[in-house]
Amino acid sequence: MARQNTDTALIIIDVQNDFCSGGALAVPDGEGVIPRINALQADFPLVVLTQDWHPAGHISFAEHHDAPPFTQTTLPYGPQTLWSTHCVQGSHGAAFHPDLQTGAASLILRKGNNPQLDSYSAFFENDHKTPTGLAGYLRERGISRLVLAGLATDFCVRYSAVDAARCGFAVSVDMQACRAIDLDGSLAAAIDEMQAAGVVLG
Ligand code: VGL
Ligand code: ZN
């Protein structure tokens, strides 16, 4: 397939062992995104990978709140879902799935490093204020269009897509190259929110 315009980047969200079968926060059929994502990469002049990358004591981990995973709490920066301990920096679970091709990526962006603040989005942390720097990186590379793929549709892909659209990028999400956690209707909410933000779901 011919390469897309030179102004389009592929952003591959969190295809890590912990979000795949057998992982600490497994997304149903998470590894199912890999063949399509590997095939897509050749169509883009710029590929970015993101990696959820938490310190061991991260505030999003349920074990630190005496609460079960998947419950909601309120933190100083707003509502936060509590998760099983996942993607601890340097662990096997935080590594990219071994079948994911990573050699073509220009940038690997790690997020969720701040112990007190979660970051679903590749653009802003969950306080919706602290930038990761990705928007500036993409703009300096002459990128104005993004295609997003990866895990999970209703959390990190959703927040990244909505933030990217708000940053002024033309955004589409390749839904066949995403899988969802689907917690209490979060997939339907994600679809509504992404469409309302002008994200194209392909
Ligand atoms: C994610 C929950 C917690 C994701 C990351 O990649 O969608 N979800 N951390
Ligand atoms: Zn996380």
Quick recap:
By secondary structure, the protein is of the alpha/beta class.
Structure description:
By secondary structure, this protein is an alpha/beta fold. The protein has one domain (8-55, 88-201): Rossmann fold, CATH 3.40.50.850. The protein is 19% helix and 22% strand. It has helices at 34-40, 134-140, 153-166, 186-196, and strands at 8-13, 46-52, 72-75, 78-81, 107-111, 145-151, 170-179, 200-201. The strands form 2 sheets. The protein has a 6-stranded parallel β-sheet with strand order 5-2-1-6-7-8. A two-stranded antiparallel ribbon has the order 3-4. The two termini are 17 Å apart. The model has no long low-confidence stretch (mean pLDDT 96). The structure holds pyrazine-2-carboxylic acid and zinc ion. Zinc ion binds at residues 52, 54, 60, 86-87, 112.
How are the elements arranged and paired?
Elements: E1 8-13, H1 34-40, E2 46-52, E3 72-75, E4 78-81, E5 107-111, H2 134-140, E6 145-151, H3 153-166, E7 170-179, H4 186-196, E8 200-201
Parallel strand pairs: 1-2, 1-6, 2-5, 6-7, 7-8
Antiparallel strand pairs: 3-4
Helix pairs in contact: 3-4
Q: What's the CATH class, please?
A: Alpha Beta
Q: Count all strands and give the number.
A: 8
CATH superfamily, please? Isochorismatase-like
What topology, given as strand order, has the largest sheet?
5-2-1-6-7-8
Q: Which ligands appear in the coordinates?
A: pyrazine-2-carboxylic acid, zinc ion
Mean pLDDT: 96
- In the CATH hierarchy, the architecture is 3-Layer(aba) Sandwich
Oligomeric state of shown chains: single chain
Compute the CA-based radius of gyration. Answer: 16 Å
Q: In percent, how helical is the residue content?
A: 10-25%
Indicate the overall shape: globular
Low-confidence stretches: none
CATH third-tier fold name:
Rossmann fold
Number of helices: 4
* DSSP strand content: 15-25%
